[in-house]
Amino acid sequence: MDTAPTDTAAPTDTAAPTDTAAHAAHAAHDDLIGTLVDKALRREPPTRAEALALLKTPDEAVLDVVAGASRVRHRYFGRRVKLNFLVNLKSGLCPEDCSYCSQRLGSQAEILKYTWLTPREAAEAAAQGFAAGAKRVCLVASGRGPTDRDIGRVSETIAAIRAESPGVEVCACLGLLSEGQAARLGEAGADAYNHNLNTAGDRYADICTTHTYTDRVETVEQARAAGLSPCSGLIAGLGERPEELVDVAFSLRALDPDSVPVNFLMPFKGTPLAGEWGLTPQHCLRILAMVRFVCPDVEVRLGGGREIHLRGMQPLALHLANSLFLGDYLTSEGQPGAADLEMIRDAGFVVEGMTETTLPKHRDDAVRVRRRGTGTGLPPNLPPDALPHTPGPQADT
């Protein structure tokens, strides 16, 4: 009986090339991350090409990126998270035109505007941050730079803070410094000075025309020369290219700051960059990892915008950064301070100098204008039991 011929040819494996390519890509990512980790553990920087390749890894590799960079973070900082607290000494009405800033010249953002806090007001605000677990207070004032009279005001403020909270760290952030001002701040008791580079030098004129990138570099160098701990970082999300993020990271490494805040743009309504929402949580993590590899043994600080751009991935960022701001920012609200402490604890980290608190329910909104704390009659964004207790009326007996 005749039978139909059978097809004995093996089926074509159409998935094989795709699988092979995916495997090769994964292996390349593993090799890159391994190289970056090995270099960072020796305190060696990556090449610019390696840093750029890290920023271009796909989203599906982001956990591998975090795992690698976390080895570096844990080598140098263990499981500690340093808390910093901002006190905005003077808010709004700045004559500079930095396009990212809600306090800039011409800003239509409906932020709080007030003149200088008194030394007592600033010291009381700082004390509340310390009570919640902060180790450093950052004293910030809007403007191009301080006058000599302003340096006197800030010196009195530092004295008031140290009288009430001895042993704490004090960082000043007052803009561009003139000759001799950094030394005066050091003599007054400041430990550190912050002035961020923000973006790559080649594109700085695109975000600000009233001062230069060189002005910023020189201010950081003046602070170092005066014996202040230099603090300088960046803002991601300004419309920069990955290459420009690499450029500013390497510029920061060259400045050799002790602290590198990594901020993510807060696109305030009423500012030129109000429509910039190009960051994703995965890209934010890659940026943090890149900074950690470029600056392996410095304090990498989670700065403004983490809540609205990292969102639910904030706990992963703790494996990259070893520091953050507690409570609110200069003109916008942050994640509730109690939620920050809860996040740190739940992720398995510990706060330097932490005081246990009762934590309220987490609240997370997009950019919200700050309307509490300094400059208002409302309490700051801190855990309730860190605030001074005001006795209520006593019942008649």
DSSP, total strands? 10
Q: Spans with pLDDT under 50 lasting ≥5 residues? A: 8-12, 354-366, 391-397
Number of helices: 13
Query: Helix- and strand-based class?
Result: alpha/beta
Largest sheet: 10 strands, parallel
Measured between the Cα atoms of the first and last residue, the distance is 114 Å
Q: CATH homologous superfamily?
A: Aldolase class I
- H/E element sequence: HHHEHEHEHEHHEEHEHEHHEHE
If classified by CATH, what would the architecture be?
Alpha-Beta Barrel
Mean pLDDT: 88
What's the level 1 CATH class?
A: Alpha Beta
CATH topology: TIM Barrel
How would you sum up this structure, described in words?
The chain is an alpha/beta fold and 397 residues long. It has one domain (75-356, 367-373): TIM Barrel (Alpha-Beta Barrel), CATH 3.20.20. 38% of the residues lie in helices and 12% in strands. Strands 1, 2, 3, 4, 5, 6, 7, 8, 9 and 10 form a ten-stranded parallel beta sheet that branches. Helix 6 links the parallel strand 3 and strand 4. The model is unreliable at 8-12, 354-366 and 391-397 (pLDDT under 50).
Descriptive key words:
397 residues, alpha/beta, TIM Barrel, 10-stranded parallel sheet, 13 helices, globular
Helices and strands, with pairings:
Blueprint: H1 16-41, H2 48-55, H3 62-77, E1 80-90, H4 119-131, E2 136-141, H5 148-164, E3 169-173, H6 181-188, E4 192-194, H7 204-207, H8 213-225, E5 229-231, E6 234-236, H9 242-255, E7 259-264, H10 281-294, E8 299-302, H11 306-309, H12 314-317, E9 323-325, H13 337-346, E10 350-351
